[in-house]
Amino acid sequence: MKAMILAAGRGERMRPLTDHTPKPLLRVGGKRLIEYHLEALSAAGIVEVVINHAHLGEQIEAVLGSGEHYGLQISYSHEATALETGGGIYKALPQFGSDPFLVINGDVWSDYPLQRLPQQLDGLAHLVLVDNPDHNTNGDFLLSANRVTDGDGERFTFSGIGIYHPDLFASCQGGAFPLAPLLREAMAAERVSGEYYEGRWLDIGTPQRLSQLDDELSAIAE
């Protein structure tokens, strides 16, 4: 299975940290944020990785290079302007062929073991859901009998870790568009599976959350 890390966001809420450094290269716990994903992918035996970028993307390529240092083969999908989650994935589709592929948001951190993800899809997508953080108390989606749905009930937060089949994007055209409407359409057709993960997960959306994670990881390393 191939993987993609979404790294094209501007990181407006992280300013001024992201004025001169792309968010995936911000350091936390002694490493760049994106390096945690790269190490997790390598540990799971996933070798081929695509990284999209826009804002200050040349820095990402300069730092990570071909991925050899991480035991990976990294290629890049450059976006002149960020294409949002759906548009970014759609632009990179030719690099994945006809098989399902893993996508990870570049601005999350988790100890989720990627090797436990299913190798085959039962539908068009498989999502990892987590407990709702303080900044998303209403959650995103419901989970029942390993199926993800959208409606009323106890919701969980989408972790930003998911597997997608290229057919999920069959009706799409190039340009900027979000991923969520495609997922909701597939959910309505009962074609999205999912799982709940109770381990550690954090959306690194603000300098405060970055500092919080840095303190936690630094304490563990001591």
TrEMBL record:
PANTHER family per the UniProt record, alphabetical: N-ACETYLMURAMATE ALPHA-1-PHOSPHATE URIDYLYLTRANSFERASE (PTHR43584:SF8), NUCLEOTIDYL TRANSFERASE (PTHR43584)
Keyword list, A-Z: Nucleotidyltransferase, Transferase
Residue ranges constituting the Nucleotidyl transferase domain according to the UniProt record: 2-122
Listed name of the protein: Mannose-1-phosphate guanylyltransferase
NCBIfam families in alphabetical order: NAMPUrTaseMurU
Tagged with keyword Nucleotidyltransferase: yes
CDD domains: NTP_transferase_like_1
Species this chain originates from: Solemya pervernicosa gill symbiont
GO MF entries: nucleotidyltransferase activity
Matching InterPro entries: GlmU-like, MurU, NTP_transferase_dom, Nucleotide-diphossugar_trans
